[in-house]
Amino acid sequence: MATRRAQAVGTEQTWLENARDFIQETLCPADKEPTIQFTQSVIDCVKTTWSSQGRNQGSTLPLSYGFASVQDLRSYQCLPCCSHLTWSSTAYQAWAQEAGLSGAPLPRERLLLVGTLTDLSGDLEQGGRNGSLYVKDNTGILGCELIDLDLSWLGHLFLFPSWGYLPPAKWNRSGEGHLELWSAPVPVFPLTISTGPPTPIPVLYPEAACRLLRHRSKLRVMQPNLAGKLVRLSALVKSKKKAYFILSLGELSPPDSQMGGHVSIIVQVPTQLVWHRALWPGRAYVLTELRASKIHGHRYRVWTTKPSSHLLPLKPECVRELDLDLELGRTLLEADAKTLPRTSSIQDRQEQKGPARDSTLLSYTGTVTAVLNQPAGLYELDGQLGLCLSYQQFHSLRRVVRPGVRLELQDVHLLQSVGGGTRRPVLAACLRGAVLLRGFSRLKPESQSSLHAWGAYLYEKLVWERQLGLPLYLWVTKALEELASKLCPHMLRHHQFLQCASPASPSLALQLLAPTLDVLAPPCVPSRNAHKEILEEPHCCPLQKYSRLQTPCSFPTLAALKEEGECKAWDSFDPKTLLSAPEVAHLTSCQLNQRLAWSWLCLLPSTFQPAQVLVGVLVASSHKGCLQLRDQSGSLPCLLLDKHSQPVTDPWLIGCLVRAERFQLVIERNVKSSFPSWQELGMEGFIQDQRARVYVQFLLADALIWPMPRTFLPSATSSTRPQPEPSLPEVPHVGQSRLFLLSHKEALMKRNFCAPPGASAAVAKPTLSFHVSGRWLGGTQRKEGTGWGPPQLKGDENKDQKVLLIFMGPSVRWFEFLHPGQVYRLVAPGPPTPALFEEDGSSCISQRPLELAGCTSCLTVQDAWILEHERSQDIPDIPGISKVLPESSLTDLLSDNFTDSLVSFSAEILSRTLCEPFPAASGTKPGSTEARKGCVKITVAVEAAHCEFPPHLDIYIEGPHLPRPLGLLPGARVYFKQLEKRVSRSHNVYCYFQSSTYMHVLSFPPETTVSVPLPHVYLARLLQGGQTPFQAIASCHIVSVFSLQLLWVCAHCTSLSVQGRCTHQGSTCPTQTSVSQASIRLLVEDGTAEAVVTCRNHQVAAALGLCPSEWASLLELVKGPGKVALQFIGPEAQPESSAKTDEPLTLFLRSLCTSLSVLRPVELSFELERKPSKIIPLEPPRLQQFQRGKLPLLTHVNPRIQLSCLSIQEPEHSSSLGAFASSCSETVTKA
Fold first, then answer.
1. Terminus of the chain with fewer CB atoms < 10 Å: N or C?
2. How far apart are CA 968 and CA 912, in angstroms?
3. Cα 144 to the chain's mean position, in Å?
4. Which of 15-29, 88-102, 420-434, 462-476 has the lowest mean pLDDT?
């Protein structure tokens, strides 16, 4: 450090010469000539102090010490340090070793500090006094802290034998450090003691002073002196107009109550504000020449000091009590005694009943053990209590308080169980209480984060303007830390996040919290009344009453949200619950594992405790072609929808900050398993691989969006109040653009492109890309000022020109914003280039596909080009564009007409499963790994106008280069364009997702699912033309059984299993697990028509009227032969099994199928076996002959309806008919 410091081995003469030079330049008064006597007095003071501890060490001068000026400390001392003139090295090492147990001790510098102790901040006017202390010399002034101030020290020159210096912290924007004066200063010259008022001093004690305030006529002529013990000291309040504090004097010996009667005195004279540092609660004082004043907003008059008032220690021998009986008259005093206002203590008040509770006022002395959030005023006391100082103006204490500091807290509030994530009790000081420094810390200050460096003003705004209660304030501080950890410093600078952009605009941090704060704590007008908070009884302040806060929400990082979503998804993944319980026992291994291969879970914010709020910066990924929310922890894919089921079309959203309280967190689970059968579903060892795809989807209407601020560097010398962000000079924007109308967009997938000329000869890999087709709207436009100039027309450019645009590489980021029917502007920054938007000479598309697409040119969008969305109504030259999406009619969709095999429609997704890939998938070899990835089968209900029962259709999405789109979930509504219509071998229409297919989600799955009951119909309605329900319920009667089949098959290869063993020749099945399968065909009628119903597996038990135990016993009997099949032709049953017809099992089944236990009325839930997508014509009515006695009858008979059973229920009015089945079962068992 560049100070005038003597070398450790220097001579006394050299040290004295340097000292004299320093004293004359730095300490001698500027308006006087340096004198030898002044210089010698300073040196003698140093000598005396140095030799007072008997540490001469052969010299009367501290040769190892050098003088340091205020300017030296401010300019060159960049690290915290301390200096102890009277300490030996051994004493310092012991002191440092003791301090080092809890942190890094302050390093020692051998410096001598001499200066004047003053309360003037450099301005000689009284306005320069605000209650702070300073050390001053000719080079400058430094703020300081002193534990026990004697007012007679002010204005005198001192040697400070023990002190510490702390350079300015990050949050201290004044750029000045401060001093900690650890021991009493040593005066260079003898102190001049003020004589004060003549003794004995006539005084009034608090009780008499309170009664005197009732006599306005006497107050005008009396300026009494008040004496008493200091029982309360408020905080030093600094407002825009003035600064003041209030002290309360009590009786020297209060008789009963803890507080007793007391009188309050306001000290607001600038020269007297420093008294706040000299007052000690519990000591007795005299305040002279007081006057009574009326304070705005307060009901009673209070005593205030005058410029001529003095603060003196109370000495009983120097005062005499004033007799008011002689001054005012006994009668008047007695008459007024009964109307005096009564001061109450906190013990006199009862707790308020209900959820709100009263805090407890107390005094406490403790040591700071941790700094939790310095600008927010949050600390830890004694390792077990929280301390909040934010409800006071603690600017001076903020720079001192750190671990190791000892504080005395007077009249602070104790709040317990505040909630909001805070578990420990908290002490909080309002304006009535005092926070007094009682011991300095030996430790170096901890380095503060940028969040703590820039957040002080924001926290003050929350307390003083919002008037937040302590529970909510503590939650806000934690929420701000969560948000800052998400966004700062890589995405936002801390000052951009915490500071106001302008005085009228709140900070970005406050805007993120505003939706929650506006509900829990609406803005308050007016703000806190300091006089009322300190003076009035009963006490009322923001800390007095509080309620336990239930944490309203949290702002997790996107990585934490994703991880928690995955954990919830896998915790809830239970194969037994994913599959239907009755059906799962009949599934083969392949069917079982295929149904478990894909599942999904949707989590709402309310699912989490507390509720989660989504916050992140919206970015467009060029690697995946989707939108993402990003913070410092990572990114999360997202799917956005604009209002009215419209996709997001405006790219200005890129880079904006998004906050969403309503969203859906979707976890798609992909599981690769090898369960042999349903019996092993509880064994995790059969799960070979599990992966999850997590993304979020929400509506823009449910989100708040802010543009990200520009980066700027704040001034190091700016004032305490944040300044508006400086405006950056406008850079002239040079570029050209062209409008185009998008008519179609193809799917995003990996495509092969021919290598451009001059490229590497290496084999090119498929590139993620997409195409859009449309037409140019006018010619190229150049930038003119802030707008675009007129189009440049060349030849036939005024005519519509169809164009194919190729997006690949970084330009893939525009995929989510491009949609048919919208007008966009393609902007190329930089100097104008002729024919920039003409046909790309190095196009990777041959001319033939362009001709098929009807386009005249092809253009590859360059990486640096920008996409802007234009509203078509703002462009007068464009005719009206229909926003209605083209849709195929149901007639074209479900017909055998294939003149146009590409169809478009909107539909609601009913189910989604994984299935085996189509044979010879396009672009892959049959045995390749990519061909074995499988495909997605989506069953949808097609939306059509005036269609009460929408037809169901299957859509298959496969392809090794096609990424799975987001949002294809059951319950979602989706628009598909240019799906390929195909017909299966069973003559059912289905659709296939091609590379030219366009889709976008119209709506997300509903948050709450409402089950719609199936319609109740007559069977004859299914024969009528027009719309018929695909699924329904009918009350009918089982007429007869056509066929019944019970068998056991190998769960692995589905071959017949006899005695539980696979019968496949050369079987290499890994397990000998078998599953049962069953089917039955029934003839039912309801009086209007007949239908043949096919029931499978567990439905067969319901059709036969068997309970679960009876059904299990029957299947066990079938396990021996492996298969039992009966065909009922007339009254006799023809068995098809290895068992003989007279076997008990066959006899039982024949008797059961012809009994009333089966042939009974039922409630049948069914679906049409013939799908609405089947394109072969219906079978016409046929002629059938009936015999009526000897008379034959010939009539037209409608074909029997083919139905698939969903469930069979017994009618509510029917009685139990299982007695016969039970008796038959017993017979078989006995046999």
1. C
2. 8
3. 42
4. 88-102
Beta bridge partners of 915: 935
CA distances from 1084 to 62, 356, 1078, 1161 (A): 116, 68, 19, 9
CA 1097 – CA 1080 distance, rounded (Å): 9
Which amino acid, residue 1178? Answer: L
DSSP element (H, E) containing 770:
strand 767-784
**Helix or strand or coil: residue 961?**
coil
Is residue 618 classed exposed, middle or buried when 0-12, 13-18 and 19+ CB atoms within 10 A define those classes?
A: buried
Cβ–Cβ under 8 Å, residues 142 and 177: yes
Per residue in 633-655, pLDDT (tens digit) is 999 999 999 987 889 999 999 99
Question: E strands within 510-632?
Answer: 545-546, 598-603, 614-620, 627-631
- Give strand ranges (E) for 1101-1160: 1123-1129, 1132-1137
List the Cα angle 630/635/640 in 5-degree steps. Answer: 75
What is the tens place of the pLDDT at every residue in 861-909? 999 999 999 876 666 566 556 667 788 888 788 877 666 689 999 999 9
Instruction: Give how far Cα 243 sits from Cα of 236, 266, 751, Å.
Output: 7, 11, 74
Element (H, E) at 111: strand 111-118
Instruction: Report which of 490, 628, 457 is spatially closest to residue 559, judged by C-alpha positions.
Output: 628
Query: How many residues comprise the chain?
Result: 1231
Hey, what amino acid is at 318?
A: C
Q: Which alpha helices (H) appear in 338-465, and where do they start and end?
A: 395-398, 450-454, 456-464
Note if the bond before 757 is cis, omega within 30 degrees.
no
For 1152, half-sphere exposure in the C-beta direction (CA atoms, 13 angstrom radius) is 30
| Among candidate residues 801, 696, 702, 809, the one with its CA nearest the CA of residue 750 | 809
Contact (Cβ atoms closer than 8 angstroms) between residue 630 and residue 619: yes
In the chain, the N- to C-terminal Cα span, in Å, equals 109
Amino acid at 1047: L
- Cα 802 to chain centroid, rounded: 46
Structure tokens at 313: 């220690």
Rounded to an integer, what distance in angstroms lies between the CA atom of residue 666 and that of residue 533?
Answer: 51
Please tell me the distance from the alpha carbon of residue 1142 to that of residue 375, in angstroms, as a whole number: 94
State the sign of the Cα–Cα–Cα–Cα dihedral 618, 621, 627, 633. Answer: negative
Is the bond leading into 316 cis (omega within 30 degrees of zero)? no
Give residue 130's pLDDT. Answer: 87
Beta-bridge partners for 164: 82, 180
Strand partners, 146: 181
Report pLDDT for 328.
Answer: 62
What secondary structure letter does DSSP report for 725?
Answer: P
Question: 753: helix, coil or strand?
Answer: coil
Amino acid identity at 184:
A
- Are 641 and 994 a contacting pair, CB within 8 Å? no
Q: What is the signed CA dihedral for 918, 921, 926, 927, rounded to 10 degrees?
A: -90
In whole numbers, what is the pLDDT of the chain averaged over residues?
A: 83
Three-state SS at 204: strand
d(Cα 744, Cα 805) in Å, to the nearest integer? 11
Collapsing DSSP to helix, strand or coil, 398 comes out as helix
Question: In which region does residue 123 sit, left (phi positive, over 0), alpha (psi from -120 to 50) or beta (all else)?
Answer: beta
Identify which of 543-557, 1116-1130, 1140-1154 has the greatest average pLDDT.
543-557
Pairing verdict, β 973-983 and 935-943: unpaired
Q: Could you tell me if 648 and 701 are in contact, meaning their C-beta atoms sit under 8 angstroms apart?
A: no
Query: What is the torsion angle, in degrees rounded to the nearest 10, for the CA atoms of residue 435, residue 439, residue 444 and residue 448?
Result: -10
User: Contact at 8 Å (CB) between 474 and 388?
Assistant: yes
Give the mean model confidence (pLDDT) for residues 1189-1218.
Answer: 77
Helix spans in 778-867 (H): 847-853
